[in-house]
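Box 3.1. Reading complex inputs
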Amino acid sequence: MDEQLVTERSFRAQADGREVPGTLWLPTSVSGPVPLVLIGHGGSQHKGSAGPRELAGVLVRDHGFAAAAIDGPVHGERRSDGGLDPAAVFADHRADIEHPGSLATMATDWHAALDLLLGMSDWTVGPVGYWGLSMGTLYGLPFLAREDRVRAAVLGLWGSAGTAPDTWAVLASAASAVRCPLLFLAQLEDQLFAPAGVLELFTELACCDKRMHVNVGLHGEVPADEHAGAVTFLVDRLRQTQPAA
Amino acid sequence: MDEQLVTERSFRAQADGREVPGTLWLPTSVSGPVPLVLIGHGGSQHKGSAGPRELAGVLVRDHGFAAAAIDGPVHGERRSDGGLDPAAVFADHRADIEHPGSLATMATDWHAALDLLLGMSDWTVGPVGYWGLSMGTLYGLPFLAREDRVRAAVLGLWGSAGTAPDTWAVLASAASAVRCPLLFLAQLEDQLFAPAGVLELFTELACCDKRMHVNVGLHGEVPADEHAGAVTFLVDRLRQTQPAA
């Protein structure tokens, strides 16, 4: 990431006695409110993985936005081993999401992180958006369901088939409470979440301003032009709305 | 339609002894090859309905393209009553599509119409595309399955649920033979074709360059921005390709 344009800052939020490790990326030079995108990383990744970092770079460099990510449960700095072995993290992640309580805990962590970001004294947060594919959707929906400060979202790559029944019940209930405009992505040959089940989750979303884009390819093969279009969707929606705070 | 920019011309193709009534819309002033979009109208409409006419107007006026439509089986000038009573036409249409032979017949009519258009002496056809939603997809897929002169398509609003089993078998087989790049549209609250069945048809399409966009609303409520984006998709794809003839 170009350090001349992007300032990277670590933060620690406190949530129910838990320490929530996060990273904030800011334009080096800011004036006035800066739109903020919260990035929920994928399973086995962490807040500093290539995916979140590259997305943050595009948001900051190309659009003058800020971006922030926190480690998921059993991911990154939440682990004593730092979460740098994707296979070990993925196994723990699969076990963790069998327990639906994980969703509420992570939502609380996101609320705490957003509180902390909104309260920083040296910059002003503009409209807030959320980007989370795959695990970022699993944990994003319960967060968005109780968070009206987020004004637009990009979600997807998760569905009913492939989700434990108790966890699916919590997720579907959360989806029915989400109200912000959103773009939902699916992959036709997704080896983790069959498209019919992704359509089922998309259908559960109660917001009326939503659309789903289905592309060819495996779970991790969202086409570059679709990814770029999703960034444009989020940026445009946040530019059209008002700050949260 | 602005007659100063758009020239409208009736034509009659011959297919297995049938007369196929069609309309061609051309820029009034043409030089060099003109990309052509074939428009398959929806059930109960006809080649001169508002939908095909307005789409043709956008293609000709805004993009300098040509457009052509033919009446579907039991539609428009194929009927002694001219097909101006949508309810009567729709009833006949529903009965007609119980017979899967209707699909092959209409494909033959489209091939004949394209032959005629490519052979016109006073203008040169550039790259050819196809636009057909709902009934335009039912009849478009069997046409495209045997037509490599069409280089890009916009389809959708049709699926397995809502289609008679014998007709579905023919349609799915045709879908598995289509090779051109395409955008496929679906409506989440489609009262005629449930989204899961639309996803099933999209999955049957064998072309690897395809994407599906699902929006909120009933069968006839494709959002204006999605419609405009679909026009852009087709125009861009045809501009990037070579003429058929």
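In summary: Chain B touches chain A at residues 188, 195-196, 199, 202-203, 208-216, 226 (CB under 8 Å).
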